[in-house]
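Q: Can I see a sequence and its folded structure?
A: Here is a first one.
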Amino acid sequence: MEVAYERRVKEEDIDELGHVNNAVYVKFLEYGRGEWYKQAAGMSFSDMKTLGIGTVVVRLDITFRKEALLGDVLTIYTKPQKLGTKSFVLKQEIYNQHGELLTEAVVTNVMFDPEKRTSIPVIKAIARNFT
């Protein structure tokens, strides 16, 4: 299931060069993954916390293609790419309001037990989204 999340670029997202700072893209991608969890898995980050589970990013591969500027409306698309036993990979792309691809990311996540601080099997609510 592919999920789209929309976000307008705000002043606090801009660096001294007048465009979105690279570190802010990581935050945008996190917002996109949060929306994917809500829509595809039916749970938010806080729902996972209540259940005593979580996900951690163990690899983040980002390619920056074009800059985003103040006022741009960005759409972050998140879709499942690969499922493992305790990990899964999500592909993310960020487009601007003109349909231009700005950023691509491949994010490897591990299911995590925050109390024991160890990885756990991917829960069914997430796993069912992979074919």
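Q: Show me another, different protein.
A: A second, unrelated one:
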Amino acid sequence: MSTNELGDLLQGSGMSDLDDDIEIIEVVGVDDDEPTGAPVPRAEAEPVDEGEVVLAFDEEPAPAATADSQAAEERLDRLRAEFDNYRKRVERDRADYQRNAVASFAERILPVLDNFERALCSPSKDEADGFRDGVRLIYRQLLDELGREGLEPIDCVGTPFDPARHEAISTDTSGENPPNIVLEEFQRGYMLQGTLLRPAKVRVTVDPAVAAREGVKDEGA
């Protein structure tokens, strides 16, 4: 509505006497065809503190990630320990197998060594017998090869009697020698890799007083 039209309307309604009191304010720059109310700007969204959002996002997953890492590290430690135990067990089993295999072979070969020793101890008509020398050489080579596998003869004659390595099958109570000394070896004993393979069968001296008290008879040859 224009200003002139508004004045005519006021005059027609009998309110012309109020012309002096009413001041018509003309709004300049406003299109009559457009709504008089100015558009209300849409309220802007409350600014978000991005730092807090990032901080919350970074802190929340941290405990779970740490727990997962610790669990994974514990599993890895267990796997390492299990593998180390497995490796040691395999090495121990392999060593036991090799030792048992060598022991089984050595036990079968001991009678052969005994026969070599009997042949070499038998009297010879000819001290310069070349055949005996050859047998002695073969016997020595065989002992050397078995020694590479840990086979060692047990020292006997002249040594103190050791029940862990010697088997007394004969005694001497004459008192001519100190007691508890090995006088004679009947069958050689052997150690294999520090373990007794076969005890040596020996003749051992016994104190005459002890022999009389305990009823031990002289079993000398």
